[in-house]
Amino acid sequence: MADFSFHHGGVSVPSLDEAITWYGDVLGFELEKRFYIEAARSHTAMVRKGPLRFELFEVEGAACLPEDRRHPPRDLQTHGNKHVAFQVDDLESFLTEMEQKGADVAFVVREAFGNGCFIRDCAGNLIEFVEEANP
């Protein structure tokens, strides 16, 4: 079996500059590089936080995110990629920080199997944060 590891997730956004700022201010990502993808007509940026990378695409003439893709349970009713998820040590303190930063908290889960939440980025894309249950 070929060996591989996770490199990055990616989202399309209406404003690359706004997204770079949002991912920096809210989640602490730093701009790694900016470039243009001619075939996709996309102004693109790679942002990074430690080993985590996120690719942001501002594509000329792109459609807005459909409303159903902005709510986790409804989003699952459409096939395709859903979201990326990051682990946090303490969901409650993470949620407090997100509220202080004005993040759009879309959905919170508190279950026996673990706690988590989804926030929406500045374009409405869902990002999950999970706190794993103690064994």
- CATH topology group of the largest domain: 2,3-Dihydroxybiphenyl 1,2-Dioxygenase, domain 1
For the sheet with most strands, the description reads: 4 strands, mixed
Overall number of domains: 2
Pairing-aware structural class of the strands and helices? alpha/beta
Going by CATH, what is the homologous superfamily of the largest domain? 2,3-Dihydroxybiphenyl 1,2-Dioxygenase, domain 1
If classified by CATH, what would the architecture of the largest domain be? Answer: Roll
User: Could you tell me the radius of gyration in angstroms?
Assistant: 16 Å
In short:
The protein is built from 3 helices and 8 strands, in the order E-H-E-E-E-H-E-H-E-E-E. With 135 residues, the chain is of the alpha/beta class.
Would you mind describing this structure in some detail?
This is VOC family protein. Residues 5-132 form the VOC domain. InterPro entries: Glyas_Bleomycin-R_OHBP_Dase, MMCE/EMCE_epimerase, VOC_core. The protein is of the alpha/beta class and 135 residues long. The protein folds into two domains: 1-63, 2,3-Dihydroxybiphenyl 1,2-Dioxygenase, domain 1 (Roll); 64-135, 2,3-Dihydroxybiphenyl 1,2-Dioxygenase, domain 1. It is built from three helices and eight strands; from the N terminus they run βαβββαβαβββ. It has helices at 16-27, 72-75, 91-100; strands spanning 9-12, 30-37, 42-49, 52-59, 84-87, 104-111, 114-120, 126-132. Strands 1-4-3-2 form a four-stranded mixed β-sheet, covered by helices on one side. Strands 5-8-7-6 form a four-stranded mixed β-sheet, covered by helices on one side. The longest helix is centred in the first third of the chain and has 12 residues, at 16-27. The two termini are 30 Å apart. The relative contact order is 0.19.
